[in-house]
Design brief:
By secondary structure, the protein is of the alpha/beta class. The protein has a single domain, classed as Rossmann fold. The strands form two sheets. The protein has a seven-stranded mixed beta sheet with strand order 3-2-1-4-5-6-7. The chain has a two-stranded antiparallel sheet with strand order 8-9. Helix 1 links the parallel strand 1 and strand 2. Helix 1 runs parallel beside helix 6. It is globular and about 50 Å long. The protein starts with a strand and ends with a strand. The mean pLDDT is about 95. The chain binds 5-O-phosphono-beta-D-ribofuranosylamine (GRF). The site of 5-O-phosphono-beta-D-ribofuranosylamine (GRF) has 13 residues, from helix 1, strand 5 and helix 6.
């Protein structure tokens, strides 16, 4: 059983997908702590409802980004977390945290990377006029949304799509592939060969 720490800034629907998958035994692991940089993140409430430790770490009380990332790393280490999952965490992860969890941090991004990294990925996809959009689970490295890709899922872009309708269609796939990627990590199946993640099939 691996111990999973989730970092979230918002509503936490991906956190919920991970909580559900662990609860139903689909992942050989448990969400042991949820950390947020936002006091009112609904993700914290979801954690509490699931009986999981929910911790707000206020970035304003630390002396800069590195100190904040050090505090995150220490909090995760103190709880013996094996895998860190970013789930709508709206800050760039800095070295002190990355170095504490090399190859043990995943993120979900709402585009088919390497297309449309960064903010508002679904709006970027719509504005670009792509016909296929989707989501990506990847390992977290220093570059934003750049790490080795674990899993992707595609959805069609429809002519009458809005950012909201496209986001909703992508989110269904996020909730499917994030738990699946974590399941594979937890069962020790994933291996890295350069940028390629193998052991999925
Ligand atoms: C998701 O679209 C995720 O891909 C992105 O931020 C959003 C978070 O949604 N990184 P939620 O908080 O998991 O509901």
């Amino acid at each position: 059983m691996i111990r999973i720490g989730v970092l979230a800034s918002g509503r936490g629907s991906n956190l919920q997908a991970l909580l559900d998958a662990c609860g139903e035994g689909r992942i050989d692991g448990e969400v042991a702590v949820v950390l947020s940089d936002k006091a009112d993140a609904y993700a914290l409430e979801r954690a509490r409802q699931a009986g999981v430790a929910a911790i707000f770490l206020d970035p304003a009380t630390y002396g800069g980004r590195n100190a904040y990332n050090m505090a995150l790393a220490e909090t995760l280490k103190a709880r013996a977390i094996d895998l860190v999952c970013l789930a709508g965490y709206m800050r760039i992860v800095r070295k002190p945290l990355l170095e504490a969890y090399p190859g043990r941090m995943l993120n979900i991004h709402p585009s088919l990377l390497p297309a449309f990294p960064g903010l508002d990925a679904q709006a970027q996809a719509l504005a670009h006029g792509v016909k296929v959009a989707g989501c990506t689970v990847h390992f977290v490295t220093e570059g934003m949304d750049e790490g080795p890709i674990v899993m992707q899922a595609a959805v069609p872009v429809l002519e009458d799509d809005t950012v909201a309708s496209l986001s909703e269609r992508i989110l269904v796939e996020e909730h499917r592939i994030y738990p699946e990627a974590v399941r594979l990590f937890a069962s020790g199946q994933l291996r890295l060969e350069g940028r390629r993640v193998l052991g999925l099939y």
